[in-house]
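pasting for the record
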Amino acid sequence: MSRRTPLYDKHVAAGGRMVDFAGWEMPVQYSGILEEHRIVREECGVFDISHMGEFFVRGPGASGWLEGLLTNRVAKLAVGEAQYTLMLNEQGGVIDDLIVYRIAETEFLLVVNAAKIEEDAAWMEGHLEDGVEFENRSGDFAALAVQGPLAGEVFEKFAGRPLPAEKNRVIELACGSGTLFAVTTGYTGERGFEVVFPAEEAGAVWEVLLSAGARPCGLGARDTLRLEMCYPLNGSDLSPDRTPLEAGLGFFVDLEKERFVGRDALLKQKSAGLGVRLVAIRVEEKSPPIRSHYPVYSDGERVGETSSGALSPSLGCGIAMAYLPFALAKVGTALEIEVRGRRYRAGVVKKPFYQPKS
């Protein structure tokens, strides 16, 4: 049976069409995917992301321990900063991609993907060291993502202070009897922020954000928005048999660190040269919507399949990402994507597909 976030009743009351997503009943849309996509690109939308997990790591050894488990350099974070990073297996494949907040000198909050909560927790607990306390508190928290050009105005009404212009900044606010963490991150490319707070405050926080001007948006628009930005989706574009170097996420991998799980495999792969690369593909003629697992062809030969795909509301054409042989990953490479037995002209393009105006 699917689980429900603390905002399930709010979604139903707002007309949300509920679907199963990673074992959760979540709203796929309210007014419609195209309209909600437009709202985020032009105004301000709010997404329920309470299905995601929250881990707390604390103790004198917390920073060093996370350095050894995650690809980015956690130790460089100042208190009040956050970063995108990845957790890998020994072969360099992606277990999960996540956000780390440094909320105190020796305390961190990690926000992980919903489908990976149990696996991530087991992996991290299996690597615990002295001087580190790990706590999975995913059931105690709710979270919302507020995204769009007007997000700054919404935040100011919500928090009574300006939204920081810098990305990856963490702000702590009082929230009922607990603490709300607001961080200037997002998954749409637009200006915005995400808030993590006690689950019992979910209804109140939701209503305040709506009254401040944010409009409800569902998973359908979240997917088209992130794909236009070429932001990878764990389980589709990221997986345990693909490395972050193949996924084009080398910027978030610090190979200069002395150690982290998967580092040796990545160094070996970098030295040998990449065999495949995750590329952006734009369909050059009118086609049915592109989905994942559609065959990709070059000169009549099947060379891969799409890992993600959609009709881009902003561009009005089909877009996709796929792992292709490195020789075909160059911008301008001509391809075809097969949809329902017919092949449509396409080509590799520069990432991202869309440049946000905010």
